[in-house]
Design goal:
There is one protein chain. By secondary structure, the chain is an alpha+beta fold. The chain is built from five helices and four strands, in the order αββααααββ. It has one domain (20-104). 44% of the residues lie in helices and 16% in strands. The strands form two sheets. Strands 1-2 form a two-stranded antiparallel sheet. Strand 1 and strand 2 (12-13) form a beta hairpin. The termini are far apart.
Amino acid sequence: MNMQQGLELNGAPVPGHVITGEIDAASEKEKRKIILTALVVEAPGLTSAEYAKRPECKGFGVSYHERRTEIARRLPDLVKELRARQGRKKKCPVTNKPCFVWWPLGSVTSIRGGASA
């Protein structure tokens, strides 16, 4: 029996991406995006550093740095998938640097100008 025969399931070859764990990685990535979307809706207007400090994000990495990196990677994915939008920069209370804030799609933080009645 060769290696390919050993990787068959019910007579059908197992796709390579299953063997390498890409499906598990993709589902983990999607799970994190779902959690992050819910967090942006629940706590809008925060920076990635502020989200990384939240207890809901403990599963995003062992250290704060790992969580912050993963969140910073996933937030632009949410924008592409129309789940969230990037706001203006504010001075982050965690890093003391200007950082972008994140909002649920469709939320308005302030309305300036316009007609008066």
